[in-house]
Amino acid sequence: MKKAVHIVSTDNVATAVGDLGADEDIIVDGVPVRLATPIGRGHKFAVAPIAQGAAVVKFGFPIGIASAAIAAGEHVHSHNLVTALDGSDAFRFQGADAPCREHSPAIAAQGFQGYLRADGRVGTRNEIWIIPTVGCVGNLAARVARIAGARHAGRVDGVHAFKHPFGCSQLGDDLGHTRALLAALAQHPNAGGVLIVGLGCESNQLGALLDLIPMERRAHIRTLSAQAVEDDEAACLALVDELVAACADTPRSERPLSDLVLGVKCGGSDGLSGLTANPLVGRMADAVAAAGGKVLLTEIPEIFGAEQILMDRAASRAVFDDAVALVRDFKDYFIRNGEPVSENPSPGNIAGGITTLEEKSLGAVQKGGRVPLVDVQRYGGVATRPGLTLLEAPGNDAVSSTALTAAGATIILFTTGRGTPLGFPAPTLKIASNSALAERKQGWIDFDAGQVLDAGFDAASNTLLNLISATASGAPSCAERNEERDIAIWKSGVTL
């Protein structure tokens, strides 16, 4: 295995694939570089001298400024590298970039066994979802799901309740975010039936939530106000029985890759995420989009510093303008709350070798491959166009992955260098950036992207696409086997 990766010839840093010792000679583009200090896996070292104040370059782009002179072979990290982001921006529109990367016929022809819904969308699961309008009835929803899940085991793919603490004591846009998110979840094609449970006196009233759901998507939805019935548990169970009877016989059928809606996400990233897992997921995005499918990318604060790469692929001036507005609104959100736009990476990211937000963002945007940017959706919105949709949501793993599901993702590819057990309403495949994590946390990790360092991207791409097809066809992900199925809602306003 190679000891370090030098991504672009103009980069003045390379990234260690494994732990490297001091005084070790590392060959970079045919030239030996002697390490001045030990370099941990995922961390960077200079391949040539870098002057104080000069740009540090990785992925072919600046990832910050050297805060001190850095000698060749020296560790490059938070002690000598600082962000150059200050909240300002100047974006340019230049039309769509190249089309999606070409793929082998084996990849292009890949399909899956899915559930065709009445409106033409296709689900990867046939489940019953119980969605509370407010936190007060969250435990009721969970209890009903547990009882009904046992009662109807084998008839549907599962009965799941998605508890949350919101829906009351919220105002304005904050309440609107909660309502829009829950209404979008209720329309998801993975839910053959949905029970929306309200309390009765909450701010998030059932009627207002239903107003956000088109009439043609309400046939599989039932509602109940707990305060309006004597035995709320029995009433909920009766409605779930009705929903199961209506959808239990829905068959899986062969569907093309174009029917897949792919959500892409990274969490607990390390210095290898942008070299292995994220570009591998980008190839999956290219494959789905080239077939005519939809790809969803979010985590807006984690594209700061790399926005222009996405905007260069905007399919029209209108899409470009929407992307600029979304990015600027999110930066204003930080500034209004007195926070710098560069308040990232996380402690785990830093321990894994990521130093600045520019570095993290340049690695993160690779999950979108080279798919043309065709739409921008605000939080709680639903993707409707084949190609790449940029979705408003913060970087938080649970909040952004819930937003991806609500926007229609029927499977989520979640890359990680540090590992996490979290799972979400849509089947979520955890893809490790390094083989050590994949081996150590086999109960969490579905796929080892560290293999691309030896086997290359082509072999790994075919293997991962086969796993995506199998999962979309019903094979459980690690998170599903571990019963990790949760949602989180973006809390952006005051609480009464």
TrEMBL record:
Keywords: Lyase
Domain of life: Bacteria
Residues in SAF domain copies: 11-82
One Pfam family this sequence matches: GD_AH_second
InterPro entries: GD_AH_C, GD_AH_second, SAF, SAF_UxaA/GarD, UxaA_altronate/galactarate_dh
PANTHER family: ALTRONATE DEHYDRATASE, ALTRONATE/GALACTARATE DEHYDRATASE
Record-stated family: Belongs to the UxaA family.
UniProt-recorded name of the protein: Altronate dehydratase family protein
Organism: Sphingopyxis jiangsuensis
